[in-house]
Design goal:
The protein is 34% helix and 16% strand. The protein has helices at 2-14, 28-39, 50-58, 84-89, 108-115, 134-139, 174-184, 196-207; strands spanning 19-22, 45-48, 76-78, 95-98, 122-125, 147-148, 157-158, 162-165, 188-189, 212-215, 218-220. The two termini are 38 Å apart. The protein is α/β, with parallel strands linked by helices.
Length: 226
């Protein structure tokens, strides 16, 4: 996925276009920034909205290697508060990482309004999209182009830009979660996120390790899943 993301980004930037990456503020936006630092160091990368604010927060803390994380360095910089419109008006090629990740609000919406009608440009979806979100409707467009309604705009917007979907998942896998559960040696574990069927499957695996769990409001005994 990173290779495909990088190749598409270089192609779009090479033809003079701009790229919008709607991203969740916590984790995903920083992941994209670091990918761009490593794989597309010649591209200008702008971080806008809540993604910018949380990236500043990341930089105040140490990373896994004991050193402070550096999101804003090299080719990555923040869009200063109040300057989104100015940056949008400057049509030089760049990659914009902005909230909201599903295009439901935030600076990502005016960026999308400026970028989507431009056939040289692109919008790269990198995270989960609720079925009724603008991001999901954008991915659901078939054929060449189309139109989409964006929050705050009365008229449907023409979509001429490249729209790509890149599954850059930031969550641990089930195997990794089992290892984490063993490492922290918690007395009881409670799955609280995701589909109930997936939670039940995870609980079964934990019970094979004699791990005590609580699922929703029901306390499951280890022998129930033997």
């Amino acid at each position: 996925m990173v290779e495909q993301f990088t190749a598409d980004a270089e192609r779009i930037l090479g033809q003079g276009g701009r790229i919008l990456v709607p991203a969740f503020a916590l984790g995903r936006a920083q992941e994209i920034a670091l990918i761009c630092q490593k794989h597309i160091p010649e591209a200008e990368v702008l971080i806008d909205g809540l993604a910018r604010d949380l990236s500043h927060a990341y930089q105040r803390h140490q990373g896994p290697d004991g050193h402070r994380l550096r999101i804003f360095r090299g080719n990555v910089r923040p869009v200063e508060p109040g300057r989104t419109r100015t940056e949008i008006a400057d049509e030089r090629p760049c990659i914009v990482v902005s909230t909201s990740g599903m295009l439901t609000g935030g600076p990502a919406v005016p960026w999308a309004q400026a970028i989507l009608p431009d056939q040289r440009s692109g919008l790269m979806v990198v995270g989960y999209q609720d079925s009724d979100s603008p991001g999901s409707r954008l991915l659901g467009l078939t054929g060449e182009g189309g139109h989409i309604d964006l929050p705050g705009y009365a008229e449907p917007l023409e979509v001429a830009a490249h729209v790509g979907h890149y599954r850059l998942g930031a969550h641990a896998t089930e195997d990794e979660l089992v290892k984490i559960a063993a490492m922290v040696d918690a007395t009881t574990l409670m799955p609280v996120h995701g589909r109930l069927a997936a939670q039940r499957q995870f609980v079964r695996r934990l019970h094979l390790r004699d791990q005590q769990t609580v699922l929703a409001t029901h306390h499951w005994r280890s022998d129930e899943y033997r």
